[in-house]
Amino acid sequence: MAARVGLFLPHALLVPTARARLPYPPPPPIPTYRRRASSSFASRPRRASPRLLPVRAMASGNPYAAELAAAKKAVTLAARLCKTVQQDIVHSGVQAKADKSPVTVADYGSQILVSLALKMDVASGPFSLVAEEDSEELRKEGAEEILEEITDLVNETIVDDGSYNISFTKEGILSAIDDGKSEGGPSGRHWVLDPIDGTKGFLRGDQYAIALALLDEGKVVLGVLACPNLPLSSVNNLNGNSSGDQVGALFSATIGCGTEVESLYGSPPQKISVCSIDDPVNASFFESYESAHSMHDLTGSIAKKLGVQAPPVRIDSQAKYGALARGDGAIYLRFPHKGYREKIWDHAAGSIVVTEAGGIVTDAAGNDLDFSKGRFLDLDTGIIATNKNLMPSLLKAVQEAIKETNQASSLL
């Protein structure tokens, strides 16, 4: 029997069953959830998938072992829902955010499942989640159908997995989404989540990531990237796909413990490191797939100054950070258009995945990224990442290219 999730307690995501740790009683049990027949996803056959392993502490020496295990479990659970929705997204579940960028039921469902897993497995005190979504759009008139879709998909994913004996009500769904309203900051612990990083890639059927990080006293100490469409071994063509290769990569990093990659569907984790290239001529670079997300003209100028011969590898989402961390390329460049403010959830997980793999991530002036200021990053112009050998020449080329671009703009 399942506990029905709703707004039974102030600030509570869920009311747990008797096996959970929190010290308050569950509501009366109701029958376990089953998908309603009218769901637009009802015709999809149920897919068998292995049950997620319970969270347990890893080898000694990692002070965040329990948190890392919970984070990996959380993003893997969310990735299942996202993978299901991506196959149907062209025909169902799409709405527009206030900023007109596309968003799907998977955005909300992913955030709910990550929050649920973290609360169940590691939250023993105040729970703080800095996340992209809130429930405002879902509380508006006309959003009833998409809210029902989200409720059904979340509950079905929980049932299919079997780790949690819990079911959500619609009001519980809204409350769970709003658990992501934390502002973060320089003190305490804060989880940082992008439930679907790379929404346009997700809608195209291309690359996206579920990106989760942990801030402890303003520092990123842990990061995981679930990349359901990224080849497990390497990116070996310009589109970021690899025919015949196993697809679905999970990157994880903890401060002082290095970076690992494993199959999203279960395999022994392998240590990875950034490439050791020291000649820019032999380097390749990653950038955003969408020109609206990063100034391709500027990155092209930087590559020319460096003498890079290879064309850019354009991939959506923080999957670029994962690919860079395992040496698929040598440089990552991101230069948003003027007026855009970077959000911490777009870089927190990816940055530690790269730095723990031996790389460097800075802004365009060479400053470390500061995730302690709240929901936004205050930085100089853009974000760059590479290995230690290439960083000096990369910084020089970046600053020269930006100066030339600014001079040209001033003449207009």
TrEMBL record:
Signal sequence segment: 1-20
Organism this protein belongs to: Sorghum bicolor
GO MF entries: 3'(2'),5'-bisphosphate nucleotidase activity; metal ion binding
Catalysed reactions, as listed in the record: adenosine 2',5'-bisphosphate + H2O = AMP + phosphate; adenosine 3',5'-bisphosphate + H2O = AMP + phosphate; 3'-phosphoadenylyl sulfate + H2O = adenosine 5'-phosphosulfate + phosphate
This protein's name: 3'(2'),5'-bisphosphate nucleotidase
An example Gene Ontology biological process: sulfate assimilation
Residues binding Mg(2+), per UniProt: E132, D194, I196, D197, D346
Family per record: Belongs to the inositol monophosphatase superfamily.
Cofactor(s) for this UniProt protein: Mg(2+)
Entry-linked InterPro entries: DPNP, Inositol_monoP_metal-BS, Inositol_monoP_superfamily, Inositol_monophosphatase-like, Inositol_monophosphatase_CS
Protein keywords: Hydrolase, Magnesium, Metal-binding, Signal
